[in-house]
Amino acid sequence: MSNQEYFQNVLLKYRSVIDELIAEQIRKQIESQLTQWGNGAIKEIKLSGSYAKKTNTSLSSDFDIFISFTSSTTQPIKEIYVLLETKLKSLYPDVRRQNVSLGLTINGKKVDIVPAKNHSGNTNDHWLYSTKKDSYFQTNIHKQINIIYLCNRPNEIKLTKIWSKLHKLDFPSIYIELMVIDALNGCAINNFEPNFQKVLEHIANNLETRRIVDPANTANVISDSLTQQEKKIIALKAKEGYDSKSWSGVIW
Questions:
Q1: Domain ends where: 140, 157, 180?
Q2: What's the CA dihedral at 178, 182, 183, 185 to 10 degrees?
Q3: What pLDDT does residue 61 have?
Q4: What is the CA 40 to chain-centroid distance, rounded?
């Protein structure tokens, strides 16, 4: 088996097979359960995240549901997050806090629900709440999805996400996506072994020092989402993978 075939098999092993009709049914289910509760405060409920970017794998949530609350909503985003958590817990038994989302299982599917508060005016800019930092930040999920989707690096991003999950690394999805795009600027598409090797080398050599900003809001510094110690752990694991003589112990 060639190395190209090896990586193709890894991608096949962890492919996420989500029927679009099922995803839309679950989105509609959430919409029907929350619309009356929202009392006019919910502007939009849509599918988003890695599912929308086509960079999802079977090792993470099946898809994200983005809930946009209107700019006129009285409560700040942190309070919205807590109120939504309470409501979802009344409907589903396994709701758990994550950094900017609430994770749960619906009809056997792993779903991350992301509450956000819309800015005023005709804009897709939103405030999100980070439980990790107990603070809020601005981003534009729509712009993020378009930028990642149009970069044409879904397979290299998936491989890096698979590697991260297999080694139990705390490496946020958007951070991975932007690091992969940064690493592979000018490289051939889907040339799996050299590209993945280049990504690991880039992470090993640059993660601890490189400033990565949200392309939808340069004031939102994605690289600040990890501590220096967390970055060091990921960088060392990337170096270990880059230096390995066999891919079977790096990604399998």
A1: 140
A2: 130
A3: 83
A4: 28
